[in-house]
Amino acid sequence: MCLAAIAHRVHPQYRLIVLANRDEFHARPAWSAHRWADQPDVVGGRDAHAGGTWLAVDRQRRVGLVTNYRESAKAAADAPTRGRLVPAFLAGTQSPGRFLTDLAAEAARYAGFNLLLADRDTLWYASNRHPAFSRDLPRGVHALSNHLLDTPWPKLRRLRERLTGWLETAPLQQDASGSNLEPLWSALADDERADAAALPSTGVSPEWEHLLSAAFIRHSDYGTRCSTLVLIGHDDSLQIEERSFATDGSLRERVRWQAAPGAWPPAPAPG
Fold first, then answer.
1. How many CB atoms lie within 10 A of CB 30?
2. Which pTM does this prediction carry?
3. First and final CA of the chain: distance in angstroms?
4. Which end of the chain has a smaller Cβ tally under 10 Å, C or N?
């Protein structure tokens, strides 16, 4: 996951809203969002190379999301995969705060990462590139890319502003068709690139900084592989939709999961 905006307890219908884009090399295999065979209480996409995930939700409506921290230093050869952090959280029963307290002792072994973990009551942020490893986040709108939380990169700022604008104008209740959510999908599909003067400097070439400055990245080798929207109601209703894209950015697949309060989606998909 390389770009996300999160609304935490600011909507009258939803206690948590997550909209996120996963950017990755097209050659790296992955499975679309499904109920996992080895963790049937989890729904999310999965990396078919290392077995981890970038975003997933469990039966208790706990959510985990991870992004890489972009830096020039290479990870140690024996560094554990960051994609295992979310499955590890969702496999247990710990609160986000307790999980991160335990993780802190070994966080330095990983390549740079950002981690957002939520349960029914709290939303926590952690990064092994921040002097204070973890903290409980207040209610509000937060955004994350490949630097620290709320670092004002142009694409992060635009996505957060568009989510904030939607929250201010959206109807209190969404219709069954989901049409009122289209502004959020449009925000994730924003392929506008930043001006050269506004680009961050993260150790890649200026050409790649320009390419990566869009919320939705189009490139034959590397780009936005999927967009995901998660909505968890104050009543514990659940909506997950994932849209996957081909190398040219066209829509390849669309999957939806919905569950009423106290219910859970049925059998897992293959893989």
1. 18
2. 0.94
3. 20
4. C
Question: pLDDT tens digits, residue range 113-137?
Answer: 999 999 999 999 999 999 999 999 9
Distance (Å, whole) CA 180 – CA 185: 10
Taking the C-alpha atoms of residue 188 and residue 193, their distance in angstroms, rounded to an integer, is: 13
Tokens of 68: 């890489």
- The candidate with the shortest Cα–Cα distance to 16, out of 236, 222, 257, is 236
**64 and 36 in contact (C-beta within 8 Å)?**
no
List the structure tokens of 233. Answer: 């109601």
Q: In this structure, are residues 232 and 248 in contact, taking their beta carbons and an 8 Å threshold?
A: no
Q: 47-81, pLDDT tens digit by residue?
A: 998 889 999 999 999 999 999 999 987 878 889 99
User: Strands 238-245 and 251-259: what pairing?
Assistant: antiparallel
Distance CA 8, CA 96 (A): 15
Would you state the structure tokens that stand for residue 148, as one six-digit string? 């620290």
Question: How many CB atoms lie under 10 A from the CB of residue 175?
Answer: 9
